Amino acid sequence: MDAVETTMEKLRAQCLSRGALGIQGVARFFRRLDRDGSRSLDVGELQRGLAELGLVLDAAEMEGVCRRWDRDGSGTLDLEEFLRALRPPMSQAREAVVAAAFAKLDRSGDGVVTVDDLRGVYSGRTHPKVTLAEFQDYYSGVSASMDTDEEFVAMMTSAWRL
Fold this sequence. Notes:
By secondary structure, this protein is mostly helical. The chain has helices at residues 3-16, 22-33, 43-52, 59-69, 79-86, 92-105, 115-118, 132-143, 149-160, and strands at 40-41, 77-78, 112-114, 129-131. The protein has a two-stranded antiparallel sheet. A two-stranded antiparallel sheet has the order 3-4. The radius of gyration is 18 Å and the shape is elongated.
């Protein structure tokens, strides 16, 4: 496990230790760290915040964390990027049921759900296509709020009639 992954695990553990209010607390923590009001954290703001939590990183480690978490390449982390980085990875059981739900939607089997795949089932005006990665990313957020694989699989199976 590299330094970035170790930092992520420590931060996740701190959030989980706060129970159900963990994500709300992280959002408040994020807003407090955003000293310039930009709605994103630069390297310095994030480094100060992690240090407050006892996660002291040198400049190179901090740059690595920011690069790994910065999905849009802006050089800063917005709240969505920050929360996404903290999500624990889904288990194989959860990934499998999400993939099965996606496959049910992807009638053409090309790995992308398009309006043609969904015609008569869903209005694609706001999201004309969805990739498996986007679908998994969405359900990764849902997954983070569920305690057990069994609960998650049951919810997915019921929702998607798998």
